[in-house]
């Protein structure tokens, strides 16, 4: 299959044997382990540690991580294919998987030293530990340069960190965190530095786990630093380059969230196809009614478009080309498609779609977050429009 993405060049989506293999591994785990337990994890909000370790043991927590650092050594296309399978079984599991792959490992592989890769990436990629990414603060979400978390440099070259971060996915269980803090407030974005944090050390505190609408098994909390000391060898990249690192990592992260949205949308769509065949009204399957057929056709179109756009962004990343705009297009399209598809799925299932006896209402709740985190739909539109117009 070939897709023409305009200025980006031709994209060939003839999947390799290795890509299909990791997709099969993800599908098997999703169907045998994750899907059967998804409802219970959603209800309890318990972190699915055993399942996450299983994903790590099978290379799914570090798909693009080279084998020498504990990963599968695959490419962004393989990551998309695997993420879709996990998300179709349960979005919460795919959220944890996305953070570990895209936000944690990716940034360290790109900007970290050899010692940092060995210490932090390997444990996460193998599923032995959980990673997190701390950028958002209570008063600064989309406006990351307004952060108040401070890292003050000491005479010995270390930094003393004080401040809060909020909405930290996997925060309640993470061993290591990629932290962004202001080292020079006068320089705004150029005054932000990235650090690698060990949560077992003195000065680190976790807040309560957030009670969320969806992806409930993906633990989220506020974290606080009180005179937490970061050593010189725990700076990620160069001092003052943190904002650039964060934006680059989020570009890659948007491919992960687009993949998650495709998985949620696919689950809702497939459930609707099945229900439209089984549910009868007025003496015939509801799938024979034109109104239902119209919904299903639109769901299929939005789902396919979302997957192709996501694969395009992943292909560009794998080719070492710029993919910022394509990732934003994929994330915006896929997240809004997932929300729309889930909405229609509830409508098709009617009362049963509103009931917790079926997973449809969970798909609806889970889909919403894909329009919010790692850049809201509004931010994606700004990224796309600014690229197209050249205006700020």
From TrEMBL:
Residues 240-387 form the Acyl-CoA dehydrogenase/oxidase C-terminal domain. Residues 16-127 form the Acyl-CoA dehydrogenase/oxidase N-terminal domain. SUPFAM superfamilies: Acyl-CoA dehydrogenase C-terminal domain-like (SSF47203), Acyl-CoA dehydrogenase NM domain-like (SSF56645). Keywords: FAD, Flavoprotein, Oxidoreductase. InterPro entries: Acyl-CoA_DH_CS, Acyl-CoA_Oxase/DH_mid-dom, Acyl-CoA_Oxase/DH_mid-dom_sf, AcylCo_DH-like_C, AcylCo_DH/oxidase_C, AcylCoA_DH/ox_N, AcylCoA_DH/ox_N_sf, AcylCoA_DH/oxidase_NM_dom_sf. Pfam families: Acyl-CoA_dh_1, Acyl-CoA_dh_M, Acyl-CoA_dh_N. Residues 132-227 form the Acyl-CoA oxidase/dehydrogenase middle domain. Its cofactor is FAD. PANTHER family: ACYL-COA DEHYDROGENASE, ISOVALERYL-COA DEHYDROGENASE, MITOCHONDRIAL-RELATED. Belongs to the acyl-CoA dehydrogenase family. This is Acyl-CoA dehydrogenase family protein. It comes from Luteimonas vadosa.
């Amino acid at each position: 299959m070939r897709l023409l993405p305009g200025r980006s060049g031709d994209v060939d989506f003839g999947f390799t044997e290795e890509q299909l293999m990791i997709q099969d591994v993800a599908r098997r785990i999703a169907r045998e382990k994750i899907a059967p337990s998804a409802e219970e994890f959603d209800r309890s909000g318990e972190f699915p540690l055993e399942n996450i370790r299983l994903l790590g043991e099978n290379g799914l927590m570090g798909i693009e991580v080279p084998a020498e650092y504990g990963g599968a050594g695959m490419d962004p296309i393989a990551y998309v294919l695997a993420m879709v399978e996990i998300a179709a079984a349960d979005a919460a599991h795919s959220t944890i998987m996305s953070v570990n792959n895209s936000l944690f490992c990716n940034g360290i592989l790109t900007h970290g030293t050899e010692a940092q890769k060995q210490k932090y990436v390997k444990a996460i990629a193998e599923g032995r530990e959980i990673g997190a990414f701390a950028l958002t603060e209570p008063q600064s979400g989309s406006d990351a340069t307004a952060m108040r978390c401070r890292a003050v440099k000491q005479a010995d070259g270390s930094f003393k960190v004080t401040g809060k971060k909020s909405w930290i996915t996997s925060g309640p269980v993470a061993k290591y965190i990629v932290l962004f803090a202001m080292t020079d407030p006068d320089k705004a974005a150029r005054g932000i530095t990235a650090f690698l944090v060990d949560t077992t050390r003195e000065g680190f505190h976790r807040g309560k786990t957030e009670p969320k609408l969806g992806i409930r098994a993906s633990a989220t909390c506020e974290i606080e630093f009180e005179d937490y000391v970061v050593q010189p060898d725990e700076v990620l990249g160069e001092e003052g380059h943190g904002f650039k690192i964060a934006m680059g990592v989020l570009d890659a992260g948007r491919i992960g969230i687009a993949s998650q949205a495709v998985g949620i949308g696919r689950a809702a769509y497939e459930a609707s196809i099945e229900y439209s065949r089984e549910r009868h009204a007025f003496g015939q399957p509801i799938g024979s009614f034109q109104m239902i057929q119209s919904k299903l056709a639109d769901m299929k179109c939005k789902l396919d478009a979302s997957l192709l756009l996501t694969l395009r962004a992943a292909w560009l990343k794998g080719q070492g080309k710029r993919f910022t705009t394509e990732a934003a297009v994929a994330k915006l399209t896929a997240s809004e498609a997932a929300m729309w598809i889930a909405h229609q799925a509830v409508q098709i299932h009617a009362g049963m779609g509103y009931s917790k006896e079926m997973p449809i209402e969970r798909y609806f709740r889970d889909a919403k977050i894909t329009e919010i985190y790692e850049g809201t739909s509004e931010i994606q539109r700004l990224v796309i429009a600014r690229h197209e117009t050249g205006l700020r």
